[in-house]
Amino acid sequence: xxxxxxxxxxxxxxxxxxxxxxxxxxxxxxxxxxxxxxxxxxxxxxxxxxxxxxxxxxxxxxxxxxxxxxxxxxxxxxxxxxxxxxxxx
Length: 89
Known about the structure:
The chain is mainly alpha-helical. The chain contains 4 helices and no strands.
């Protein structure tokens, strides 16, 4: 499981269990991971769509971390979307 999705899930279960600093850090890391994955997806030819799938999952992690850092309950939607994309629950 992605550690940043885990932070969001922990926050969803108990908003006070995760500090704003942890949420912001997860959001920042997720943004950088998404940027890197998007670059790789754009730069590499991948006949099987693996780079594109990685970029999509990274984007969903970014949305989840961003929603949680803003105190937005939409984070639950993005966690579910991540689990569907990765079959990781």
